[in-house]
């Protein structure tokens, strides 16, 4: 039996190639949402350019965790209440990922 993992991924479209941070209210933990548990995320950059991977902490600040070259993979322990943000090296928003459950997730960014 094959396991299918559904990933919640939102691609951000920026006006004029730049965007103001639309995630100012996004945090790693909301006390109204119970902790979903620990998870493991396997990110892979399948795009043509390097990307920076940021964790959005409980204050809404971005914390750089890794820079992924084209084709590079990165494995990150996380929690289901922790959002992850991809940006270009020029600081343009590309995508955001929020784990939905505590199963291993495979996230490809194109």
Give the termini distance in whole angstroms: 27 Å
Going across the major beta sheet, what is the strand order? Answer: 1-7-6-3-4
- Report the major sheet: 5 strands, antiparallel
The SSE order reads EEEEEEEE
Low-confidence stretches: 1-20
Topology, number of strands: 8
Give the helix proportion (percent range): under 10%
Shape: globular
> Over all CA atoms, what is the radius of gyration?
14 Å
* Strand portion: 35-45%
Q: Which structural class best describes the helix and strand composition?
A: mainly beta
The overall pLDDT average reads 77
Separate helix tally: 0
Q: Can you give a write-up of this model?
A:
The structure is a single chain. A hairpin with a 4-residue loop joins strand 6 (84-88) and strand 7 (93-97). The model is unreliable at 1-20 (pLDDT under 50). With 110 residues, the chain is mainly β. The chain has strands spanning 9-11, 38-45, 51-56, 62-68, 73-79, 84-88, 93-97, 105-109.
Throw out a few tags for this protein.
single chain; disordered N terminus; 110 residues; 42% strand; 8 strands; 0% helix; mainly beta; three-stranded mixed beta sheet
Topology:
Blueprint (H helix, E strand, L loop, with lengths): L8 E3 L26 E8 L5 E6 L5 E7 L4 E7 L4 E5 L4 E5 L7 E5 L1
Parallel strand pairs: 2-8
Antiparallel strand pairs: 1-7, 2-5, 3-4, 3-6, 6-7
């Amino acid at each position: 039996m094959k396991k299918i993992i559904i990933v919640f991924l939102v691609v951000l479209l920026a006006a004029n190639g730049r965007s103001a941070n639309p995630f100012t209210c996004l945090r790693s933990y909301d006390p109204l949402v119970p902790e979903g548990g620990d998870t493991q995320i396997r990110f892979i950059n399948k795009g043509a350019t390097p990307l920076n991977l940021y964790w959005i902490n409980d204050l809404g600040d971005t914390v750089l965790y890794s820079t992924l070259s084209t084709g590079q993979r990165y494995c990150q322990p996380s929690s289901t209440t922790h959002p992850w943000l991809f940006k270009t090296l020029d600081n343009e928003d590309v995508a955001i990922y929020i784990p939905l459950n505590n199963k291993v997730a495979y996230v490809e960014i194109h």
